[in-house]
Design goal:
The chain is α+β, with helices and mostly antiparallel strands. It is built from 20 helices and 25 strands. The structure holds iron/sulfur cluster (SF4) (3 copies) and zinc ion. The site of one iron/sulfur cluster has 13 residues, from α19.
Length: about 575
Amino acid sequence: MPASNTSLRWCNVCNVPLLSEKCDTCKGSGFSLKVRKPADLRPVFEEERKLILETLDKQYEKGAGRKILYDNHLIFANKIFYIDQAYEIISDGKIIGHFFFDVYDYNWSFKPMEHGSFRIFKNLNLGVFMENSKVGDEFKINESNFSLKMKYLPIYNKYGVFGVAQILNERRVKIIKTFLPISREEETKPSSLKDVLDANLEYVRKKESKAVAFIHKISSRIKKPVCVSYSGGKDSLTTLILVLKAGLKPKVSFTNTGIELPETIENVNKVAKKFGLELLISNANESFWKGLDVFGLPSRDYRWCCKIVKLIPTARLYKKEFPEGSLTFVGQRALESRSRARTGSVWKNYWIPKSISASPINDWDMLTVWIYLLYEDAFNLVNKAYFYGFDRIGCYLCPSCSIGDYLYLKNIHPNIWRKFEERLMEKFLSEESPFIKYHLWRWKKVPNKIKSITGDVSRNYKAYTVKRSEETTEIIVNKKIDKETLEEFFKILEDFEKPDILLKHENKIILNLKNKDEKSIISVILRAAYCQECRSCEIWCPSEAISFNQEGRIHIDETKCKKCKVCTEKCPIVEFLL
Ligand code: SF4
Ligand code: SF4
Ligand code: SF4
Ligand SMILES: [Zn+2]
């Protein structure tokens, strides 16, 4: 699929991106620059800049990085589609190249684009002369100052640099991109994020007043206690500041999934304290780690943890703190994902049915968020992890992360990484296993593109087996079942014998399932065997028939139970293991 582009405005006088048609500093209207969609630019901070420069130095020569991305000239990253982490790198109003984690090479890589190629040619004196050529052409080269580690070279002719070639081996290259020849580059001046803010001041003020007006409007319409769902990320910080600007005094809720970066925990406490707000924390404690034993590793197509460590603890907290519902402001932006774009600015969260969620920054882009935080002088309240190179803040072991993200984590928090790696090693034995090296655990069904690198791989986990004979059905689970717990769960089934006579071995149940609803019965057995004490069933039971004692043991009140089986439908064990 060809990558689709969109335009971005840039002021050539002030050397900053423009968020509207006009620069507030020089009053110019700038020029339009084609960038990849969705054009959600963010500034590159110091640690990441270092990594990009080091990558260029390794690829070309010592000092190459600073000859391609100039000191004190801002760098912006625009996420692009690739099998791992990849960004379009923009500086001086020009597309310099693509910075990405090269899965084939298992290393960071920089692929120069139009102006990166020109700068390599002009400042490093590297390039291949070609009268004319087109994408896909392969040819032999004689130059001796090239090495394989350069990976990409500019192609030039008498009109200038007009393409990029990938080095295939010592003597062969292939053209991967062509463009109109570039023979010179206008000089640009250094600029800072403060310059970006000044050039976009009016725009930022307008965005702020529109967001504050939105908060006023919705809070006057929905008369419920106000809360801000705070994740420790920049978007929720921006949202919190806007809610405070609107004159509201919200409570702040935070779901500690148990796999949060230490910087996030520190940030949540710091921000709540700074604004003197009540902090409501729902804690998933060790649920993620315990869940690994039952559900196996989470993956992009098997997100059991979202239920266990996020949604259910959050639902429990809201049920307790806001029994009649709340108006919850969330820092959600449409540009983040298609599903977020679909939600709109106001929505109902399925898991918190009495509450209304609203995002005052739904139509903001990432750059607006960053410069708004600068405008508010709130950089000291930003989660430090962003400045270490993390692109997103959230569960650090999320299967949505890229290999690049895990490498950041390994580098910055080796102890945290080790704990997870030990669990991976228990399953996959060697660091060289593709499940660890390429983090294939992130998929149940590994995408073909990845398989082309790692070879065919598969992962199966079955939480139970069923053996059928004429008279009986045997259900065998991988865990010892506690008889009393089994009896509790069987209370929700109609017309069934007591399970104590059916439990033949610690993990084997033999039943006569003739004319019985097999699926409901297996669901109940799985719940009894693998219950995670998440209490989703307690939240959803319409008859309040479920309770848990101090030890976390479930009790079902038969006098209240209507046998509706809602508790089974809402149980993550059934959802993910049946
Ligand atoms: S790790 Fe990812 S999938 Fe799991 S709870 Fe966190 S965000 Fe959801
Ligand atoms: S039985 Fe209830 S507490 Fe146990 S995992 Fe299922 S929903 Fe959670
Ligand atoms: S959800 Fe329905 S079946 Fe489950 S305990 Fe409550 S009333 Fe009984
Ligand atoms: Zn300007």
